[in-house]
């Protein structure tokens, strides 16, 4: 029997002769062999191996062909003798003998020790990232979505909630936030789901089994758990329960579970607070009616010598005398909330002061005369009849001098009343009331649609200044304090003619009498009767009401300079929702993105380290992976029964192995016939040449020494339908 030629001996076969059945029995290596026997006995093992399968000849045909490729059309050479060493076998991955039972071939009985597995390492140093381009795109989009969300929220933080933005009529702010969060979660779920699916291949790989040699091994049914975990929450819980945190896939499952809360918790990122916001519209709160100069009057009589006020001014006088409540001038406010700066304007001020009365009784005429210091008087008979006599008359004033040069009075009048009754006797009282032009500072505010007008302060000091022949002069306000918020360049004045016109009219209506007895009332005019009614009540309130009516008239029909028309414009505000971002909630998606990126990177590195291609959740790789004949036998009929395959073979502990061959030698051991011919890939083999890969699954059992041993029927692991022992 010829010895194998040195040129055909694989370097790995020389380094590990005990792994080559044929080389181990060669005389040159001091192994026993018998040419006539039907079996070969290895000195290092008590196991008996039948002769190799005839399918071996097809592998020989590949090596001996001139092109180096395997031709399916080539006739397989005749099988060598059962005991003769195969001269061609040393160039291939050395096969152990196959046992035969019931016409089926079983995988090799190869010990899966640490040394054995070390020799099976297969790494793709240049393919670590080739299979993950799609996941990189999703990872990039998830990061971009997170950054876009942060920029989006930062832009609107503290701003008024936009009703809409974007295209096609706009979308709401809430929709924009949810859209970015959803895009971030969907992209994250895409690459995390792929990484979880890839975890199934890592979980069943032989190298992973070696690292877990003292713990529970992978089961064939674990593929279903990883697949379901990559699809949803319920499957993720199942994977976490099965792995008990022992596999990195549990991290991916946790990410998938927590990722479904993105849309829910995104509502906590943003709240909306109602705040008062000023509108930028200049016409939202224009300046209310105000005046700086009063020069409104009419000429009447012969040649227009008589001066009288306009009809609106007369109406304001009547309204002030008779009305009990004068409305405010409505300030225009576009919204329900407006405010204006302190606004100076011409107005009317009034005051009533109690003055003494002097009685003068004459028994001859049987009359008593009651007089004021200013000369106003009233007579009352000396009898016991109950009566009341009231008189109003203009006067030069004792407390308010109508001809004062420092105050622009347009009316001063006395009110005197004498009341006689059997119970109280005779009571006489008198008051002096005055009205004058003054400068007022108004604070006007509109809150929730309700206007409030308050006179903060006033100023009454004037100086009569002669201007020209057309005007007799002006009563100009001087010494205006800064508290009135006036402009130093603005002139506040009342023309002397306008003041005389109003004074003439007031003189004509502030005179008359009212006499009352038990059952009768006799008055000279309605407004005199109104003044008598006011004298019996709060006279100060009445005079202030009278002055307020005239103030409205001065504000509405006075004039202002062009320089100050827009100075006192107000600001319109409205309660608007303002975006409030709670940045602490951004930690949640940010942490999830970082954790998912780490999970993706770790999965890629682990796949490259263990020599696992990026198959992820693809179905075709499973179809082209071989499975032990025993597993096939045990699963027979399971596909026709709901859950039949899971029940029959799902609990079998398996490991995935790879056998590769190339011009640089061969790696991997055992199960060659169970492997399936794969495509040619780069990166395998000892020399980095083209590699022919075969992948498959084999059942494993604990060898009692911290490792796993290949499936073998004779050791009691019955996969033919009887279950594990």
UniProtKB/TrEMBL annotation:
<feature type="compositionally biased region" description="Polar residues">
    <location>
        <begin position="27"/>
        <end position="44"/>
    </location>
</feature>
<feature type="transmembrane region" description="Helical">
    <location>
        <begin position="165"/>
        <end position="184"/>
    </location>
</feature>
<feature type="region of interest" description="Disordered">
    <location>
        <begin position="24"/>
        <end position="90"/>
    </location>
</feature>
<feature type="region of interest" description="Disordered">
    <location>
        <begin position="704"/>
        <end position="725"/>
    </location>
</feature>
<feature type="compositionally biased region" description="Gly residues">
    <location>
        <begin position="663"/>
        <end position="677"/>
    </location>
</feature>
<protein>
    <submittedName>
        <fullName>Uncharacterized protein</fullName>
    </submittedName>
</protein>
<feature type="transmembrane region" description="Helical">
    <location>
        <begin position="136"/>
        <end position="153"/>
    </location>
</feature>
<feature type="compositionally biased region" description="Basic and acidic residues">
    <location>
        <begin position="706"/>
        <end position="725"/>
    </location>
</feature>
<dbReference type="InterPro" id="IPR021514">
    <property type="entry name" value="DUF3176"/>
</dbReference>
<keyword id="KW-0812">Transmembrane</keyword>
<keyword id="KW-1133">Transmembrane helix</keyword>
<feature type="region of interest" description="Disordered">
    <location>
        <begin position="662"/>
        <end position="690"/>
    </location>
</feature>
<feature type="transmembrane region" description="Helical">
    <location>
        <begin position="583"/>
        <end position="600"/>
    </location>
</feature>
<keyword id="KW-0472">Membrane</keyword>
<dbReference type="Pfam" id="PF11374">
    <property type="entry name" value="DUF3176"/>
</dbReference>
């Amino acid at each position: 029997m010829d010895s194998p030629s040195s040129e055909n001996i694989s370097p790995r076969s020389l380094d590990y002769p005990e792994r080559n059945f044929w080389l181990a029995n060669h005389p040159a290596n001091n192994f026993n062999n018998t040419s006539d026997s039907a079996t070969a006995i290895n000195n290092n093992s008590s196991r008996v191996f039948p002769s190799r399968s005839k399918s071996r000849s097809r592998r020989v045909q590949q090596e001996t062909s001139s092109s180096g490729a395997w031709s399916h059309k080539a006739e397989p050479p005749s099988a060598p003798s059962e005991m003769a060493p195969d001269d061609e076998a040393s160039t291939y991955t050395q096969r152990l003998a196959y046992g035969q039972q019931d016409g089926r071939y079983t995988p090799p009985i190869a010990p899966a020790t640490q040394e054995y597995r070390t020799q099976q390492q297969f790494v793709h140093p240049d393919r670590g990232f080739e299979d993950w381009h799609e996941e990189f795109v999703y990872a990039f989009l998830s990061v971009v979505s997170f950054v876009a969300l942060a920029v989006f929220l930062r832009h609107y933080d503290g701003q008024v909630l936009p009703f809409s933005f974007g295209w096609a009529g706009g979308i709401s702010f809430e929709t924009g936030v949810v859209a970015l969060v959803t895009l971030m979660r969907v992209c994250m779920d895409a690459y995390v789901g792929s990484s979880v699916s890839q975890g199934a291949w890592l979980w069943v790989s032989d190298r992973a089994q070696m690292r877990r040699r003292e713990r529970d091994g992978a089961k064939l049914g674990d593929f279903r758990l990883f697949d379901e975990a990559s699809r949803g929450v319920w499957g993720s819980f199942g994977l976490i329960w099965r792995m008990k945190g022992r596999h990195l896939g549990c991290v991916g499952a946790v990410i998938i579970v927590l990722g479904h809360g993105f849309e829910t918790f995104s509502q906590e990122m943003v709240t909306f607070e109602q705040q008062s916001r000023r509108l930028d519209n200049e016409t939202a709160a224009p300046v209310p009616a105000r005046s700086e100069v009063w020069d409104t009057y009419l000429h009447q009589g012969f040649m227009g010598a008589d001066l009288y006020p306009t009809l609106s001014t007369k109406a304001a006088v009547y309204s002030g005398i008779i009305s009990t409540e004068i409305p405010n001038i409505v300030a225009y406010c576009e919204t329900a909330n407006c405010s204006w700066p302190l606004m100076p304007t011409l107005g009317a001020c009034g005051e009533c002061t109690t003055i003494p009365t002097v009685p003068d009784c004459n028994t001859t005429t049987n009359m008593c005369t009651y007089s004021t210091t200013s000369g106003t008087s009233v007579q009352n008979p000396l009898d016991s009849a109950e009566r009341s006599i009231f008189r109003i008359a203009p006067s030069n004033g004792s407390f308010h001098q109508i001809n004062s040069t420092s105050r622009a009075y347009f009316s001063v009048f006395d009110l005197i009343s004498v009341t006689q009754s059997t119970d109280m006797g005779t009571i006489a009282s008198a008051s002096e009331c005055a009205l004058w032009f003054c400068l007022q500072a108004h604070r006007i505010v509109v809150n929730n649609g309700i206007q409030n007008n308050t006179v903060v302060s006033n100023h009454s000091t004037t100086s009569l200044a002669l201007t020209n022949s057309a005007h007799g002069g002006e009563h100009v306000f001087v010494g205006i304090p800064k508290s009135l918020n006036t402009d130093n360049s603005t002139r506040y004045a009342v023309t002397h003619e306008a003041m005389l016109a109003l004074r003439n009219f007031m003189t004509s209506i502030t005179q008359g009498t009212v006499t009352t007895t038990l059952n009768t009332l006799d008055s000279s005019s309605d407004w005199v009767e109104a003044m008598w009614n006011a004298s019996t009540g709060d006279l100060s309130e009445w005079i202030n009401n009278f002055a307020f009516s005239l103030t409205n008239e001065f504000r509405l029909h006075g004039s202002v300079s062009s320089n100050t028309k827009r100075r006192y414009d107000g600001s319109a505000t409205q309660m608007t929702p303002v975006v409030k971002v709670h940045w602490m909630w951004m930690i949640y998606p940010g942490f999830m993105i970082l954790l998912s990126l780490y999970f993706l990177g770790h999965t890629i590195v682990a796949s490259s380290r263990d020599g696992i291609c990026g198959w992820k959740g693809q179905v075709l790789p499973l179809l082209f992976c071989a499975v032990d004949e025993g597993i096939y036998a045990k699963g027979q009929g399971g596909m026709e029964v709901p859950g039949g395959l899971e029940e029959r073979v799902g609990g079998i502990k398996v490991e995935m192995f790879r056998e590769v061959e190339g011009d640089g030698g061969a790696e991997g051991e055992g199960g060659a016939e169970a492997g399936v011919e794969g495509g040619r890939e780069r990166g395998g083999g000892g020399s980095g040449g083209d590699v022919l890969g075969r992948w498959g699954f084999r059942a494993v059992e604990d060898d009692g020494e911290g490792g796993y041993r290949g499936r073998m029927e004779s050791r009691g692991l019955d996969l033919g339908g009887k279950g594990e022992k």
